[in-house]
Amino acid sequence: MRVLSGIQPTGRFHWGNYFGAIRQYIDLQHEDEAYYFIANLHALTTVRDRQELEQLSWDAALDLLALGLDPNHAILFVQSDVPEVSELCWLLMTMTPMGLLERCHAYKEKKEKGLTADSGLFTYPVLMAADILAYDADIVPVGEDQGQHIEVCRDIAQKFNHHRGEVFVLPKAKILDQSAKVPGTDGEKMSKSYNNTIELFEEPKQLKKKIMRIQTDSRPMDEPKEPQTDHLFQLYSLFASVDDRDEMADLYRRGGFGYGEVKKSLAAAAEAYFGPARERRAELQAQPEQVRQILGDGAAMARKKASSVLKRAQEAMGLCPGG
Ligand code: ADP
Ligand code: TRP
């Protein structure tokens, strides 16, 4: 089984990204083979500043490695380092009906809001299909919002195989467990679009500040409170051991505490949780050559696979590579 997924470098990773996606990708790296890439070509549809995109892509690589993505288990690379995928994307576009893309949510939502979309956003799902098909991926772990794009990928692959012969492996989506949406500092879903995120590698001082500013209700201290519906408790539960979580739940039910105490416990638990990764990140940051080497080796392995699949597609379409 080959697992593959991409993650867009459109912002620094936050707790929601980690618990809803990154941690699960890392757990899956022990499948037979795993390919993970930083989807900087897709990010071009939103990040328009050159330096910002470069920096976010680099930060994403450092973050993923620091969090435990192991280059001995998974192939890690940057999407634009494999030009074969963009070439395959064109071949797939010639077989993708407009109607299929018109139904895709990112484009549809933008259009419905009366905003102008560029053709990059319109054809975004085809590039994503090329990303997946280029590596003969079997399983694609993604958030629920990306399920539609995997369906589009399957439609394109099926159509291609039907008209041109069996060239592509049909991938399956593995929808990540995001049942417990990570709440943001305002209690809504944590998201960079809502400006309520806490980043994974926030400076410790800044981290404390943000945690202290998490919104809470104004019920009196002695009033008992229900932990399960409280977003501060939900955040604490992400990091605490089962015993610590149960103890905190008891404290909520008894009442007689201030939210400030819970926030202090949350700050300590989050720092203990991400502390070792923070240290690894600092080590990696001090050895950029080593990180470049990992990404270079990853890209070389990815290109080897992608060029053989591209060749299959070119031959099936009468492009006869190499004359
Ligand atoms: P954002 O909402 O901050 O723009 P993205 O859309 O880039 O985040 O999300 C990347 C991945 O992280 C997706 O799989 C997404 O579903 C997951 N994710 C983002 N925020 C949360 C959250 N609050 N809880 C759980 N998963 C999340
Ligand atoms: N579009 C995906 C997202 O926003 C990222 C992505 C790009 C991807 N190419 C992919 C995910 C291929 C899985 C497979 O999350």
If helices are DSSP runs of H or I spanning 4 or more residues, what is the number of helices?
Answer: 14
The unreliable regions are none
Total strands: the figure is: 5
Helix content: 40-55%
Instruction: Please identify, by name, the CATH architecture of the largest domain.
Output: 3-Layer(aba) Sandwich
Task: Supply the helix-strand structural class.
Answer: mainly alpha
| Proportion in β-strands | 5-15%
Report the mean per-residue pLDDT as an integer: 95
Widest sheet: strand ordering: 1-2-3
The CATH superfamily of the largest domain is known as HUPs
Structural domains: how many: 2
How far apart are the termini?
A: 34 Å
* Biggest pleated sheet: 3 strands, parallel
Would you kindly provide a brief summary of this structure?
By secondary structure, this protein is mostly helical. The chain contains 14 helices and five strands.
Describe the structure.
The chain has 14 helices and five strands. The longest helix is centred in the last third of the chain and has 29 residues, at 288-316. The protein folds into two domains: 2-181 and 287-316, HUPs (Rossmann fold); 201-282, Tyrosyl-Transfer RNA Synthetase (Orthogonal Bundle), CATH 1.10.240.10. The model has no long low-confidence stretch (mean pLDDT 95). The chain is mainly alpha-helical and 323 residues long. The structure holds adenosine-5'-diphosphate and tryptophan (TRP). Residues 5-6, 8, 39, 42, 128, 131-132, 140, 142, 146 line the site of tryptophan (TRP).
Task: Give the topology.
Layout: E1 2-7, H1 15-27, E2 33-38, H2 40-43, H3 50-66, E3 74-78, H4 83-93, H5 98-102, H6 105-112, H7 119-122, H8 124-133, E4 139-142, H9 147-164, E5 172-175, H10 204-212, H11 231-239, H12 242-254, H13 259-285, H14 288-316
Parallel strand pairs: 1-2, 2-3, 4-5
Helix pairs in contact: 3-13, 4-8, 4-14, 8-9, 10-13, 11-13
Bound molecules: adenosine-5'-diphosphate and tryptophan.
Adenosine-5'-diphosphate binds at residues 8, 10, 16-17, 19-21, 143, 145, 176, 178, 181-182, 189-193.
